[in-house]
Specification:
alpha/beta, TIM Barrel, eight-stranded parallel beta barrel, 45% helix, 12% strand, globular, Aldolase_TIM, carbohydrate metabolism, schiff base, DapA-like
């Protein structure tokens, strides 16, 4: 039986950073203030992260692992805590040799939480799995009754456009390359998932609003501004560790270090990107003390 559709998943989804202690444990005490920051400061009401009932509209829990059994265990846990959806990335050490093999893996994970909406997370540049997302979606419609959408994190806009064109209109098509979001909106993206929406959500929400109103010139202006910032950041080596450090600098939230094998991001680079954000987008470091952080 197919999963009944829930409230439409649209707009921005923050790919959240995991708050960590110095010893490498998850710092659960930061979760509440973090969500408050996203909702109140950035206007972001959907997250990839831990379930917090009543705080946000949607919480999508990523459960993909190299191990099928671990993925299934996490899927069952997500269902048990009331998550609004689960997302699964392809295994990346022993890579699926075909679309059929990947679909079989996804089907087995989905079967552990059959009543929870299931989203495929397409991230070929990181996983090294070059299977077209369109091929996965076409097979998923029959094999996975709970399948309800896609997080597409690739610059291949032709593949993304074909995913939108060939999928049921009820499936959310979420784009994951922040610097190309406007192009994806033109192709029919329902929303976007990205780490920069943790601190640029308010700005990008302005771009979404302009696009919805048909003000393409304003939407393009905002996209060009975010591209200017991200281009500058990429030149400094904008990896996950630096991105998390930047979030700490901008929000004041005690997010802690990244998890090994990633090393602490450069404070200097984070501050340089912060300055670029302020010059280009007018984003100022908020006073998190007001939120009890």
């Amino acid at each position: 039986m197919a999963v009944p559709p829930r409230k439409a998943l649209t707009g921005l989804v923050a790919a959240t950073f995991t708050p960590m202690t110095a010893k490498g444990d998850v710092n659960l005490s930061v979760i509440g203030p973090y969500v408050d920051y996203l909702v109140l400061k950035q206007g972001v009401h959907n997250i990839f992260g831990k379930f917090l009932q009543g705080k946000v509209d949607h919480v999508i829990v990523h459960v993909g692992c190299l191990s099928l059994r671990e993925s299934q265990e996490l899927a069952r846990h997500a269902a048990g805590i009331g998550a609004d959806g689960i997302s699964v990335i392809s295994p990346s050490f022993f890579k699926p040799p075909s679309t059929g093999a990947l679909l079989q893996f996804l089907q087995e994970v989905a079967s552990a939480a059959p009543h929870v909406p299931f989203y495929y997370y397409h991230l070929p540049d990181v996983t090294g799995v070059k299977i077209c997302a369109q091929d996965v979606l076409q097979g998923a419609q029959e094999l996975i009754p709970s399948f309800q959408g896609l997080k597409f994190s690739s610059r291949d806009l032709m593949d993304f456009g074909q995913c939108v064109n060939s999928s049921p209109r009820s499936w959310p098509m979420l784009y994951g390359v922040d610097e190309q979001l406007l192009s994806a909106l033109v192709l029919g993206a329902h929303g976007a998932v990205g780490s920069t929406y943790n601190y640029m959500g308010s700005v990008v929400n302005g771009m979404l609003a302009a696009f919805e109103k048909g003000d393409v010139a304003q939407a393009r202006k905002i996209q060009f501004q975010t591209q200017e910032v991200l281009s500058f950041a990429f030149q400094l080596g904008f990896d996950l560790a630096v991105n998390k450090q930047l979030m700490l600098v901008l929000s004041g939230l005690p997010l802690g270090p990244p998890r090994l094998p990633l090393l602490q991001g450069s404070q200097e680079h984070a501050e340089q990107i912060r300055d670029k954000l302020e010059r280009t987008l007018g984003l100022l470091t908020p006073n998190c003390c007001a939120m009890g952080v």
